[in-house]
Design brief:
233 residues, Rossmann fold, Arc Repressor Mutant, subunit A, elongated, alpha/beta, 12 strands, 43% helix, five-stranded parallel beta sheet
Length: 233
């Protein structure tokens, strides 16, 4: 018997929250609904979830704060933000927090289900990857282990645990070292969809990777205008 994915849903609008919960359950997802950010975070700590759906504007604790706290406990669990705020700055802030997707209100229930299923398919594929297909990459004074998602500074004997998306993106860059990693290819490989919001998300993760590697001047991630990115070794 197939195990249902368990979702955490945080939405302070009672009517919308109940409607979403009923729809998600009808679609086969085991769903817990929380009416504010504090309850959602407390619920997350008490149970195991496959994905979190967080409204951004909530009382007591907003969705961004909840996501930051969740990321301190679990760097890899997928997070989808729901928000009436659709300005570029708001979307980027959501992705900087580590969101996997950002859906602006109003939205269709079918779209939400599509995005949930796409993210869960991707995470399932990641979990099924064979360790034998991974390699240890040498990046100047750094080594990168995609299987463990760890970037190590050998000189300082320091290790950085990367998020799943950071690790996936760095692995693609390493596999295409000194060649152009096409933007659309990376988006469809990691984010499934090459829409505007996902493209902005990838820009955020590129910035994070540059910060991780900034102590090695021989290694650089450059923008190739109109095409994508290139890891220079």
């Amino acid at each position: 018997m197939e195990t249902k994915a368990k979702l955490l849903l945080a939405e302070d609008d009672e009517n919308l929250g109940l409607l979403l919960k009923e729809y998600l359950i009808a679609k086969g997802f085991d769903t817990d609904l929380f009416g504010d950010g504090e309850l959602a975070y407390a619920g997350f700590k008490k149970s195991e979830y496959n994905l979190c759906i967080l409204d951004i504007m909530m009382p007591k604790k907003d969705g961004i704060s909840v996501a930051r706290d969740i990321r301190l406990i679990n760097q890899d669990i997928p997070i989808i933000f729901l928000s009436a705020k659709n300005l570029k700055e708001d979307v980027l802030e959501g992705f900087r927090t580590g969101a996997d997707d950002y859906i602006t209100k109003p939205f269709s229930m079918e779209e939400l289900i599509f995005r949930i299923e796409a993210i869960l398919r991707r995470t399932a594929q990641e979990g099924n990857k064979s360790g034998t297909e991974q390699a240890i990459f040498k990046l100047g004074r750094f080594t990168f282990d995609p299987r463990k998602q760890v970037l190590s500074n050998e000189e300082k004997e320091e290790n950085v645990k990367l998020t799943t998306k950071e690790s996936e993106l760095l692995r693609l860059l390493c596999n295409n070292a000194n060649k152009v990693l096409e933007r659309n290819f990376a988006l469809k490989t990691i984010w499934i969809d090459d829409n505007y919001f996902n493209a902005r998300s990838m820009d955020v993760y590129i910035t994070k990777l540059r910060k991780h590697l900034k102590e090695e001047p021989a290694v650089e991630i450059i923008n190739v205008h109109g095409k994508g990115y290139k890891l220079i070794l």
